[in-house]
Prior knowledge:
Order of helices and strands: EHEEEEHEHEEEEEE
Largest sheet: 5 strands, antiparallel
CATH superfamily of the largest domain: NusG, N-terminal domain
Number of strands: 12
Structural class: alpha+beta
CATH topology of the largest domain: Alpha-Beta Plaits
CATH architecture of the largest domain: 2-Layer Sandwich
Amino acid sequence: MAQEQVVDESGADSQEGINIINVNENGLWYIIQTYSGYENRVKVDLEQRIRSMDMMERIFNVVVPTEDEIEIRDGQRKTVSKKLFPGYVFVQMIMDDDTWYVVRNTPGVTGFAGTTIDERAKPTPLPDTEVDQILKQMQTAQPKINIGFVVGDSVLVTDGPFSDMMGSVDTIDLDRGRVRVMVSMFGRDTPVELDFLQVEKQ
Length: 202
């Protein structure tokens, strides 16, 4: 469900702030909708409002669910943070008129998910089991690998004895970080096993 994200105009991509580990049993989790690409900016602004308006005993956590992904581009590995739910931020809070106002009037927030036409109607909280699963995934999941090609794609070998040869992807082994490429040698297709960093999609 993770997607390529638009960078916040603020340049913020930080999970700093209220700690998601100290989950308060009195609060329920709600989803707020934001402008696309403003999830982290909303998180920062909302946490500032919570502190300045002395709401820390009623609004406990603000979370932008993310997962790490390893991208392989231009022969290099880079770990990036991908948002699991683009356009949404999770808030753990005690819902009342005051907390609703603080959250709803944060810049970049377009509303609570799960509300009816009457926006002031109480939004539907997330089931605890779903939230627990998402938070656990954020904390324990191994980074996914985005290699940029799939079986059948044409690739260029960029390193090693087969450098500059074209081939097609035959199999991909994510666990070992290896790819088998069929290259044409001596008039026939020959399988060559390479590291992900040694090939580029064409």
